[in-house]
Every structure is written in C-alpha cells, then in structure tokens.
Amino acid sequence: MEYRTLGKSGLLVSHLGFGTMRLPIGKSNPSFDQAINLIQYAVGKGINHFDVGTFYCHGFCEEVFGEATKDIPRDRLLISGKNTTHQSNSKSWLDQLANSLNLFHREYFDLYFLHYLDYEIWAKHFVGNKVIDQIYEAFKRGLIKHLAFSSHDSPENIRKLIDTGMFDAVLLQFNIINRRNENVLRYAHENGLGVFTMSAMAGKALADNKLSLLTADGHGGERVSTKAVALNYVFSQPFIHCVLVGMDSLQALDEAINVLDGERYPGEELENMSKLVDEERVRLSIPCTACQYCMPCVQGIDIPGIIDLVNQYCLLHTRSTFSRDYATMRNPAECCIACGTCIDK
Predict the structure, then answer these.
(1) Is residue 190 packed enough to be buried (19+ CB in 10 Å), middle (13-18) or exposed (0-12)?
(2) What is the pLDDT of residues 221-234, one digit of tens each?
(3) pTM assigned to the model
(4) Which domains are delineated in the chain?
(5) Mean pLDDT of 28-41
(6) Can you tell me the distance from the alpha carbon of 116 to that of 162, in angstroms, rounded to the nearest whole number?
(7) Which of 83, 129, 264, 293 can pair with 236 through a Cys bridge, CB separation 3.0 to 4.6 Å?
C-alpha cells in the first residue's frame, strides 16, 4: 500500500481510502458480520483511512466500524469521524463528538471532519452562534487532533473556508468528468492541507463503462474498463493524498487495490484524457468554461455548478446521480427570477 504525508498535519494516510457508505448492512435485522470482515480485510491490505459517517448505513456505520477495529492497534489506523450537527445549540456538537468516540472505542480522533460544510453555515452557525467555541473546547480536552471539512459548496466559498486557517484537511468531489474542484484542491495542497477526494467514479456511474471514449486503445494499448481508467486518473493526480472509494464487497476492494498497484498515468496522458472528455462534453452539452463571469447570482444560484451537473448528465445519462447531486445545491435553478443579470455580464 502506498502512503502519503497528509500536508502540514504530518499524518500518514493510505493513498486509497475506504468509503463506508455502501457497506453491506441491511436496514431491518442488520447483520454486521460481512461488513466487519470487509473492514478488517481492508486493514490487512494496508488501508488506514475509513470515511465513516454518523448516518451512513442506516445509522449503524459508526457502531460497525468500532466493532471491526476496536482490537486493532491505533498506529495502524488514521482514526477520523464526521460531525453532522448544524444546529444552533452548540452543546449538541460536542455531544455528537462524544457519542462517536464511544462507538469507535477510542479516546480521540486524529482527524475530525465538519460534514457537508458550506461557507454560509460556517459564518452563521459556527462563528455567529459560537459553536466554534465547542471546537476549541474539543481541542483543549484532547478529543480531536486535527480539524477538517467536507463540502459541496462552490470552489470560491471552499477557498474562503481554507483561508480561515482552521482546517488541516479537506474532502471534495473530484473525478475525470467532474474536475470543477481541481483548482481549489490544488490551492489546498499548496497551503499545506491534506487533500481527500470522493466520487472517483461519479457515484458508480463510471463503474458501468458508460463513458466508452475512455476505454479504447491508447491507455496502455488495450481496452480497459471505465472504472479502472477513472480510478487511475484520480490516483495519478499529484495533489491528492487520499482517494476515497466506496466499498461494498471484497471484489470491489481488490479491484481498487489492483488499479492502485498498477502504473500511473503520466502528466501528458492526464492532460490528453481531460481534453478528450472536455471535447465530448462540449459536443453533447452546454459550452461552459466556468469562467465565473455570470457570477455572483443575485439569488445565490451556483450557475456554473448547475451547468456542470447538466453536462455530466449529457455525458453519462445517469438520472439518479444527477438527482442526488442536484439535491445538494443550496439554491437550485428554481430560485431563478429571470432578472437577466447573468446574461448582461
């Protein structure tokens, strides 16, 4: 397993991270055995970072991870969790932190993420409502060593979050068809933050060979799966420390490890692949370069972000992925009042 130093934190992280959202855990009468075996198998393969969320797997994720890893020495794991609390009651933030540590059977987190954070929530909730004081309290009590955040906000707002100086790592979407966050990920890396990425396969869309232009000859001289190309593309980016991949089976885990163990794409080929996807995107969809000249929108709509989702749909025709990602938009297109300001710009 390849490991990378996680920016200024100095922590070592496996280049392949384990996304737990798709662990095989049923909603009714759940059996944890298969999920526990999968987690322990991953640790045996050298994976030390697991993306564990409070509400993942019908709310059982933290309990399962804790049971699977409670007897594993701490130095074999990068213990991280996520806090989903966006309430005005600051005490609830510490309560969730304490509950997660209890389920993990650990005394502190190496890395603790503010989950689904955007700049408005940070400014109004964490700073405005003084929840940031609870973060300082957690540091003071030794409950967390490093603070991080995951976000679906605009790249501009994500950069503002980085510039607060509060965070040692960031987790953002990035894949071969959605490179919208590339510049801000590079910015995070340049400023010493640990860089985690998610959605390497665009929510499994790229696991189904739907982007056939990437699987023809020219990538190693033989036809390969879209999944392998998509994973290798993200693994090959020098500014990414850890690539999260959702795991639901031993087969999926072994496939990801095999790609990681293979040869990386050189810089020239990465550029050619990006250009190939961009040309296809323009041919099929809305020719937007994300220049931001149309921004800001008076209604707070992320215009380039919505266009990017439409373009991804035109490439892959994956309705479920589009619907899921569109639902993360704080101000959807329906908020448009047809004022024409963006057109005039």
Answers:
(1) exposed
(2) 455 677 888 898 89
(3) 0.81
(4) 3-271 (3.20.20.100), 285-344 (no CATH)
(5) 86
(6) 14
(7) 264
